[in-house]
Structures are given as C-alpha cells and as structure tokens.
Amino acid sequence: MSTWERIRPRGDMFMWGVIFMLSIWGLLAIYSSTGALAYKKNGGNVEFYLMQQAVLLCAGFFIMFFVHSIHYKYFIGLSKLLLWITYPLLIYTLIFGIEINGAKRWVNLFGITIQSSDIAKLAIIMFVTRELSRKQDTIDDFKKTFLPILGHITVICLLIAPENLSTALVLFSTCFLIMFIGRVKIKHLLLITGIVALAGGLFFTTLFLLPESALKGTGRLLTWKNRIESFGKVEIDPDKTFQNDHAKIAIASGGLFGKWPGNSTERNFLPEAYSDFIYAIIAEEYGLVGALIMLMLYLFFLYRALRIVLKSPKAFGALIAVGLSFSLVLQALINMAVAVNVFPVTGLTLPLVSKGGTSILLTSVAFGIIMSVSRYVEQDEPEAETEKSIQEHALITGNE
C-alpha cells in the first residue's frame, strides 16, 4: 500500500471535495472582505486575516481527518457526557459571558474564546440521535421516550435563545427533523409544533405591543423587535436597514458574472462583510452564477449526506449524519436568505466560508463525524454485499 493510500481521506470523496471547495472559496472571500477591518484594527495588514483563516482551516482539516478516522459508534458514549458539560457552560455564558456586538454568546476558557452554543449544537444532536437509536423498541411511548428527549432539547434551546435566538430555532428544527426520521409519531411532533407556534405567536405579539421604552435594558428583546420591524419595509429609519440596504446594493451591482475577486466596493460599507454578510460580497464579486454555485455546493453536500442515511445499517450513524448535515446546511441557507433579504438579520455565519475562530474548529468536528459515518458505512458495504451474494447463491443452489 502506497503512502497516499494510507493517509488519504476516506469516505465520500464528493463530500470531501465540497468541503475543500468551500474552504478555498472562503479564503478568497476573507482576503477580499477584511480590508476595512484591517485598516481599522491592524494597520491595513489584510494578509494577517488571510493567514489567520488559513491556519484555522488547516487545523480544522486536521481535526476532520482525526475525527473521521474514529468509528462513529464511539461517539454514542461521548454524547451524554458532552451534554452534561453543556448545561453549566451555557448557564455560565448567560451570567459571565463575553459581550460582543450586544450579545453574550462567548466565554473564555483557559485563554480561548469559544461560542458555547457551538458545543451545545454538537452535544444535543449527538444525544438525541443516541436516545432515538437506543429506544427504537419504545419509540411510540410518549412518556418514556418522547418527553425525556424533548425535555433536554427544550432546556438547551431555552438556554441559548436569550442571546442567540436564531441558533436556538435552527437547533430546535434540526432536532425535530432527527425525531421525524427516527420514527417518532407524527401526532407527537404536531402537538409540540402547535404548542411552540402558539407560544411563539403570543410572545412576539406581546413584544410588538410593548413600546421601545419598556424594552430597554431587557437584553436582546429590543434588537429582535427592530430586526423584524425593519424586515421588508422601505420607508423606515435608514440606520436600522443599513446592513440590508448595502447587501442589496452589493448583490445588484454584481450582476450575472460579478465584478471578479477583489473588486467589491460594498465590503467597505457592510459592517460584517466578512461574516454575517459574506454571501453578499460573494454575489457582488462572483455574480449570480457564483452565488448559485455556492448554494448548490451546500445542497449537494446535504444530498450526499442523505445517501449515507440510505446506506447506513445502524440508526445512530444515519441519524447523526443527517442531523449534523441538516444543521450546517440550514445555517448556510439562513445566512444566504439574510443576505438577499428573504429573512430578517440573524447573526448566523456561513460554515467554512465566514471568518471565524473556534467556531471553525467545532464545525470541523461536525464535518469529521459526518465523514466518519460515510467512511465506515462504505467500508462495511463490501462485507454486506458478500454476505448477500452468499445468501442468494445458497437460495439458488438449495444449499444452506
């Protein structure tokens, strides 16, 4: 066996290709979109942010490779431990978290700043898939199976929501998809969906009825109200629609084929051109064609993940692959929808493309777990096919 055969990534090579393409595209977009940030904070040294992103992506690929070499069955035992670590971490973040751009989403651990919701996403998705795969025999039992799982999902999402509502909603939706695929009764899911819709409707109705003066000093409530109110409106305070307006300008000026890499003008106006609104910069520089290609890359990754589900012989492997893939792709779709003003501003980044820190490393763990399922499902396929062939041969010849 050659050296390349020993060290090359395993699993679905199309998925590895998508990961690599998104990472390289992200590097180009970061180099182009961090000019204003560099002049404000780093003396105009744009290469600093390029190298920072490159180092993080290299570390991320190392993490992906390491995680994908571990059989996904070993993550079953890790899921519960990770969940119980998440609870105190989220509570600590709410009380003592680092506030950036008006939100307490970050916490400093051993000199490293991390977004605790990134760990929570991994923890709860792994835990839900573990419980569903272990309790397939009692999957229809509302009290013994459904309620305990729902309880953990609800508490985790409620701890995330005060400072990061969009992430909490994406996570809740992802967990419901996993439960749907995991054969939880439709009537149970519809019941909880109705309760959540009713509670959400009452909450936001009350929010809009209250004057702005009553919402000052109440955390993110005023921000949520302003973002929803400004969404889709034309005649409103320009300060409230500044990001959306310049994102629209970027997309419109990009045309069909774009201005080409490095020629964006709106990168100097958009406050979060390198993270929340990086898709608008991509649309400006690469045009509608480039924007659609990036969208198709994420959707193609999800399609390949769904193919893994059909191949996976184990419930845990199938559920964790589709759960993590759906979470990452849904995050990407919401980021794109915000950039084109189809969705209110959320603060969600574009996985592997937006500028990041430890979020890239934790995203890499998620990709690594997905590729672990892909790798070991494909390795088990020849054995399964051989066994099937033997059985068919025995039926034909009449031998057992």
Please summarize what this structure is.
By secondary structure, the chain is mainly alpha-helical.
Index terms:
400 residues; globular; disordered C terminus; 4% strand; mainly alpha; 3-stranded antiparallel beta sheet
Count of DSSP-assigned helices: 15
**Kindly state the mean pLDDT as a whole number?**
84
Cα-atom radius of gyration: 23 Å
Our measurement of the CA-to-CA distance between the termini, rounded to an integer number of angstroms, reads: 36 Å
Low-confidence runs? 382-400
Largest sheet: 3 strands, antiparallel
Would you kindly provide a written description of the structure presented here, covering whatever features stand out?
- The protein is mostly helical and 400 residues long.
- It has helices spanning 3-7, 13-33, 35-41, 46-68, 75-96, 116-134, 142-160, 165-181, 186-209, 212-215, 221-230, 242-254, 278-311, 315-339, 358-397; strands spanning 98-100, 103-109, 112-115.
- The chain has one domain (3-397).
- It has 15 helices and three strands.
- Helix 8 (165-181) runs antiparallel to helix 14 (315-339) and helix 14 (315-339) packs across helix 15 (358-397).
- It is globular, with a radius of gyration of 23 Å.
- It has a three-stranded antiparallel sheet.
Give the SSE layout.
Elements: H1 3-7, H2 13-33, H3 35-41, H4 46-68, H5 75-96, E1 98-100, E2 103-109, E3 112-115, H6 116-134, H7 142-160, H8 165-181, H9 186-209, H10 212-215, H11 221-230, H12 242-254, H13 278-311, H14 315-339, H15 358-397
Antiparallel strand pairs: 1-2, 2-3
Helix pairs in contact: 2-4, 2-13, 4-15, 5-6, 6-7, 6-8, 6-14, 7-8, 8-14, 12-13, 13-14, 14-15
